[in-house]
Amino acid sequence: MNSNQVSRRDILKAGAIGSLAAVGIPTFIPASAFGANDRIRVAVIGINGRGKDHIQGLQKQKDVEVATLCDVDSDVLRNGAAEFEKKYNKKVQTLSDLRQVYDDKNIDAVTIATPNHWHALAAIWACQAGKDVYVEKPGAHNLYEGRKLVEAATRYNRIVQHGVQLRSSVAIQEAIKHLRDGLIGKVYMARGLVYKWRPDIGDKGTSAVPGELNWNLWQGPAQTRDFSKNYVHYNWHWFWEYGNGDIGNQGIHETDLCMWGLDVGLPEEITSSGGKFLWKDCKETPETLTSIYKYPKEGKVIQFEVRPWMTNKEDGVEIGNIFYGDKGYMVINGYSDYKTFLGKERTPGPARNEGGDHYANFIEAVRTRDKSKQNGPVETAHLSSGIAHLGNIAYRLGRTLHFDPKNEVFVGDKEANQMLTRKYRAPFIVPEKV
């Protein structure tokens, strides 16, 4: 190819050129580095849980190749690669350290399905390496990280898609339009519901680190702890060093939809109450949590409920949202179904059940370099995660908190403000200047 010819893949990478130079990465990237047939080559980081869905969703996309699998557990990685080869009749590169992924110039984009405490740093490092990013919810483990991720996506001109897949649902997009158009009148309240079966996890204590697991890398930004089977591979969700409880797990989909439907950002007043009332296990996060987020200037409020066991449904909803207006209410069940009920008699109104493809939306934005096409832009990774973090802080401190959404700090509360970030462990530090 001569100097006057520009391929589609050249265009794909063009947005990163200036920023890459700033961090010492060569600005000349040969077209041959991008793989055959002008494909987008993707690495999936963390393949034991949601990463499996990432692989499947990406492999369905035209001219997209899952080229690399990365996991800190060698057994998970080996089994994942064998399953991939069997299913897709092709071999895939395997790496154990995400930093090796970022050094690979043949990788155009990464998806991140690690535990929560790794999400933001992994995504920021990817941006700095010139990779586009699909990151699972919550996009950040604390409020500080979310803001830094937004800054990194902006500075390095990267597409960063947050895994709130209901935003790509055709039905939910229609539902939001109804809210904006006044179908149920003035929308003043949203409820988020997370009624998900969460059993007793016991207390397995500490034990030797399994030979297949890189425990140091698994812990990453978190402070060092002795290994416990209670953490790996799923129940880390219920420990503050790694997870954020169910409001920061399943609940991010619902916090995101509450804010989207009400058309609000972060709140000014937060109250949370809950605890562990069922099991005497080693979970640190509350089993049951009720959070109230007030928006006095807008005259709106969010109510959020987490219940783990033996509960009723609300209008058929266990996982979802309910919006209340002065002319009716709207029920959103799961990720792709809504119904409306109008007037005092609750007369059924518009309804629809139709999903979408969040991975396809990500790939479209990557190809076009157009962030406006994103259904789950990086700002949702900060805000929908951030509101969950605020609720958790109010719960942990046991008092109503007042928050300044413009400056993203609590008002006159040093103790609460210290909980907006965390103590990081070198070299896994979310930088102040990204």
UniProtKB/TrEMBL annotation:
Domain (Gfo/Idh/MocA-like oxidoreductase bacterial type C-terminal) ranges: 205-257, 358-428
Domain of life: Bacteria
One Pfam family, short name: GFO_IDH_MocA_C2
PROSITE patterns: TAT
All residue ranges annotated as the Gfo/Idh/MocA-like oxidoreductase N-terminal domain in the record: 40-163
InterPro entries referenced in this protein's UniProt entry, alphabetically: Gfo/Idh/MocA-like_OxRdtase_N (IPR000683), Gfo/Idh/MocA_oxidrdct_glycsds (IPR050463), Gfo/Idh/MocA_OxRdtase_bact_C (IPR043906), NAD(P)-bd_dom_sf (IPR036291), TAT_signal (IPR006311)
UniProt cross-references to PANTHER family, sorted A to Z: BCDNA.GH03377, OXIDOREDUCTASE FAMILY PROTEIN
Official protein name in the record: Gfo/Idh/MocA family oxidoreductase
